[in-house]
User: Which sequence fits this backbone?
């Protein structure tokens, strides 16, 4: 029997169900994973999340496991190689943004000790619980995503508009936005 899940989860897609049940809304404090999710959310711009989720392993392979130092060494030849990779979205602006975001990410790590310390400071160090009852009370952006987006852009990040940042906040658990009827809803639990 299917457990109740958030309205947006296509129950006939095991990949999406696993992502919802095991990752979405779960706090992430690992810089490499925070970087990966920031990049993947940016890649989603203009597309559906399932498109990116299905290509996730291809992105990991194409971008050297999202290793910052490897990405920072990318040159024009590597960008052209990525533009020919059918396993990823071949958008030059997005590919170049990965390289720029790797540099910006490293600068944040140097300033704050970790990207984790930087990003979680916006949430006061713990997940923000939002009680959702259905799809009509799920905003695409918030005042907090506006503020984080503005700060990321100031630091040189690309593809970090407020809507992308709001999705990112859910993806890495800064916001636990599972609906109250969802099997993953944690209420006041950590």
Assistant:
């Amino acid at each position: 029997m299917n457990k109740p899940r958030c309205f947006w989860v296509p129950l006939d897609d095991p990949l999406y169900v696993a992502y919802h049940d095991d990752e979405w809304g779960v706090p992430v404090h690992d810089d490499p994973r925070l970087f990966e999710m920031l990049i993947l959310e940016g890649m989603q711009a203009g597309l559906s999340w399932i498109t990116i989720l299905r290509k996730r392993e291809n992105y990991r392979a194409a971008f050297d496991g999202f290793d910052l130092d490897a990405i920072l060494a990318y040159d024009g030849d590597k960008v052209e190689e990525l533009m020919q990779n059918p396993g990823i979205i071949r958008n030059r602006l997005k590919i170049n943004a990965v390289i720029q975001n790797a540099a910006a990410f490293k600068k944040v790590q140097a300033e704050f000790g970790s990207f984790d310390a930087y990003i979680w400071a916006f949430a006061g160090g713990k997940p923000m619980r939002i009680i959702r009852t259905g799809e009509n009370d799920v905003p695409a952006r918030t005042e907090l995503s506006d503020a984080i987006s503005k700060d990321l852009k100031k630091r040189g990040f690309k593809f970090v508009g407020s809507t992308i940042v709001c999705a990112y906040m859910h993806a890495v658990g800064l916001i636990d936005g599972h609906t109250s009827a969802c099997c993953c809803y944690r209420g006041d639990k950590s």
Q: What stands out?
A: The radius of gyration is 17 Å. Residues 14-176 form a domain with the Endonuclease III; domain 1 fold (CATH 1.10.340.30).
